[in-house]
Structures are given as C-alpha cells and as structure tokens.
Amino acid sequence: MTVHEMIKRRQEYNKKILAVISKMIDKYPDWRFGQILSNLGIAMRGKDCFYDESVETYDNLTPQFKEL
C-alpha cells in the first residue's frame, strides 16, 4: 500500500484500532490502559510510533488480539 493510500484509509484504520482496544477493555477488565497498549504492541518503551500511519499501527498489532 502506498503512503497516499494509507493516508486515505487513516480514519478507517483508526476506528479498527479503537475497536480492538474496546474489545480488550471488555475482555480484560483488570488490565490498565497502558498495559493494553503495551500488550497490543502499540506502546513499547523505546519505540516512537508518532509518525507511523494507522495502517502500519494496525498491521503491527499483536496477532492474537487482532482477531478478538
């Protein structure tokens, strides 16, 4: 997928990421928010994902949680 295609699909993938996070909150109510982001592979110490496109962030989610 080209950068322009990723930009066009940014909002779609933001919503997909939020849907996964929402399912994680329901499935693991005792997990802290930062713990959820870490377990999904979104927030990791030493990793700067500020400039990652949403498509890349979604593609990098921990596979076992992506299909909840």
Topology:
Elements: H1 3-8, H2 10-27, H3 33-39, H4 54-59, H5 63-66
Description:
This protein has 68 residues and is mainly α. The protein has one domain. It is built from 5 helices and no strands. The protein has helices spanning 3-8, 10-27, 33-39, 54-59, 63-66. The longest helix is centred in the first third of the chain and has 18 residues, at 10-27. The radius of gyration is 12 Å and the shape is globular.
Question: Gyration radius, to the nearest Å?
Answer: 12 Å
**What about the largest sheet?**
none
Mean pLDDT: 92
Q: What portion of residues belong to β-strands?
A: under 5%
Task: Provide the succession of SSEs.
Answer: HHHHH
DSSP E strands, number = 0
Number of helices: 5
| Structural shape | globular
Helix coverage percent of residues?
Answer: 55-70%
| Euclidean distance between termini CA atoms | 25 Å
Structural class: mainly alpha
Poorly predicted regions are none
| Total individual domains | 1
